[in-house]
Amino acid sequence: MPFKLIGLRTVAGRVRGLAALALVALAVLATATGVAVGHARDGLRTLGDREGPMVLATADMYLALSDMDAQVANVLLTGDEEGWLCDPEASDCERGTQRYVYDIRREDAQRAGLQAARLAKDDPVGLRTVQAVLDGLHAYDQNVQAAMQAARSPEAMAELPPEAVRRYRAATALMAEDLLPKARNLTLDAAAGVDGAYEDEHSAVLAGRFRVIGAGLALLAALAGLQVYLARRFRRLVSLPLAAAFAGALVLTVAGASLLATEADRLRAAKISGFDPVLDLTRLRAIGQGMDTDRSRRLIDPDGAGRYDQMYLDKAQTIRYVKGATGMDAYNRALGRAAARDGAAAAYRVYQDHDRTVRDLAARGDRVAAARAHLDPRWTALPHPSFRTYDQKLDALISRHEFLRIRAVARGDRAAEPWTWLPAAGALAIAALIAAGVWPRLSEYR
User: Fold this and answer.
1) How far apart are CA 363 and CA 360, in angstroms?
2) Which of 74, 319, 350, 397 has minimal CB crowding within 10 Å?
């Protein structure tokens, strides 16, 4: 009785039933392909055009803040306070390079704060953190300005007066204990959002691939069944439109599943080989900048030498962990025995070898010689060449991984773009072929 109600007891009814089954499978195939491709494009845009670049911009806040602190320490160490404080509009002002770099990096930090605010627009805690960082920047500027005013001296590399040291301690404590941790938290929170979006979209693409394969197999089975039934019932060896529909369905299924597998790989490459390393290396670069500044702090403020040496060691352990090293001597001995894994690791070891020389001079009480050894021998406005080499190696690695992220996103988006219309167009063509294959047979029963 049920077969009679849906008309499957007649030849025409069975032909219509098999054709309808094929069309339903075709609709599912086209829909599954289109939805999965949409997830792939959303994931790529997250990493390439929307949240991903914004998160990387917030990561630069940490680096910009560290760079600002480095410029301040360099000026106080070399005695170029006049070049910091003079009015650039005055005719006799020769403003120092460090002040220009400081102002540029401050603007970078503020711009990154605005990016963080955009990412945290629905998060009151995140917005308060952004505002706290921007407010803290103002307080930091005030302490730095006061330290520069109190440190003015005609003698280069002179020891700082007590008031200058006090205001510098306040500035550097604000930076190390408040601004940098908050900047790091902003980046971590924003990166967690990107991680969640990536996991959702990547899983959706892989699940969509299996749906495409399942719907494609169902469509091929329905078309094969329809072809066999027509051949047996109407004594025709093959229906050319149905054969073409079968070939088209096979191509659409294989091409769609292959595309989704490739898109999943490109999503993973953009995230794992691009976005994640850029974040991690940017943080390491900022930590390295802070580590080099800790050495300057120790020379500016010898009374706080123990605290600054511990801060230096903590950062060194973050960059390259050495088990059981509770001091820099033990750390350097272990580091010297370890094999350098890449150019950055080798450059880092050279930098630490040079730092040992600076520490030995400072330990002997020769502060000026230690300061000269710590800085570039020709341009005291710059860090020592050994640190710059290490920093440039990290910068090159960041650029390489950023290129991998951009390339993976561009290739994925370029490959997926035609698939915004191909599934629907292919489904219409296959549906027309199915109709062309069964219509002549059905017309015999009219």
Assistant:
1) 5
2) 350
Q: Which two tokens stand for residue 354?
A: 């040079």
Let me know: does 295 contact 361? Beta carbons within 8 Å.
Answer: no
Q: Is the pLDDT of residue 183 over 80?
A: yes
* Res 5: pLDDT: 41
pLDDT score for 112? 87
Strand partners, 383: 375
- CB-hemisphere CA count at 13 Å for 188? 8
Structure tokens at 95: 């403003």
- What's the pLDDT tens digit per position in 131-162? 899 899 999 999 999 999 998 877 778 788 99
In this model, does residue 7 exceed pLDDT 70?
no
HSE-up (13 A, CA, CB side) for residue 373: 19
- CA gyration radius, the chain: 33
Q: What is the mean pLDDT of residues 333-355?
A: 84
Task: Judge whether 150 and 200 are in contact, CB under 8 Å.
Answer: no
Tokens representing 17 are 């039933």
Q: In the predicted model, is pLDDT for residue 441 greater than 80?
A: no
